[in-house]
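@channel sequence for tomorrow's demo:
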Amino acid sequence: MECVSDPTDRERERATHRNGDQASDGGGGEPVVRSRDEAIGEPAVFEYANHERIGVAVVDAVSTVAGVDPLQLDTRLYDVIDPDALERTIRNGNADVEISFRFEAYRVSVFGDGGITVTGPAGADRS
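structure tokens (generated this afternoon):
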């Protein structure tokens, strides 16, 4: 994964979405995260590719922020959200679609423009 040290203008623009929580930048391609330490209190920003399964990208993003292998996560994605419904909703919506949910100790937001944010642990975010 590539580390982003200086947020883009697009990241800054989307830093605060409609309810005051923080959001992600979008795009497609390799998942991108600033750093594991920055994920506490401010979102770690990832991107998923058009051909990539969104559920897999979510698990990879959370495991990266948590610093563990995806198979070491205690919770399975399908225990908190239907991955197929997530995929259909995001893929069939427009770029403004956003779905947020708790996964492990993190708040995950998936955006129709290709962005994923992971904020946490849950006790440290502003929700």
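heads up for whoever presents: The helical segments are 9-13, 54-66, 83-92.
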